[in-house]
Amino acid sequence: MSEQQLIEKAKQGDRSAFAQLVNTYSERIYNLALRILRNREDAEDVLQETFLSVVKNLENFDGRSSFFTWIYRIATNASLMKLRKKKIMFTELPENQESHESIENKVFIDWSNDPSLTVQNKEVMELLEKALGELSEIYRSVFILRDVEQLSIKETSKILNITEENVKIRLRRARQFLRDKLDEYYSEKVSHHDYA
Length: 196
Prior knowledge:
Blueprint: H1 3-11, H2 15-37, H3 40-57, H4 67-86, H5 97-105, H6 115-118, H7 122-134, H8 137-148, H9 153-160, H10 164-195
């Protein structure tokens, strides 16, 4: 049965069709929430909230966007709401024109595909996790959707309800912030090695 048929059946109250939709998306939604919130209990809450919201609003789903985009938008919004309620202090990246231009003029490499990072370096992965936790929600969500979830700019733009240009700018800033953190780490390693 196609996803469209499952959705139609679920709209008519077919519980097994709805259960299949839950099975299809629950793991991805849980992982998305976990990456944004970095807390298992919060991610479980978001998973539950997402499917409760789907139950309530499924009849309003008109198919203009894909079901995947629609459910991801619900999950992302629920995660960001939870993050805002925590009132954690995040590193704010500069928004002024000068830094915007300097970022625009830099050549960015998608370091998420850097083969040196595919080596299971626990220390580097922990550092990235920590740095990601310092990023405010607007940058963290773009980075996770684009570089971790591997969604397109178009899908990310629809899920976050921002322009594609904004997706690109926020992603560049997030990548630069994380790259700077890695640079600090490696330069400390090198200087430590020089003195050893």
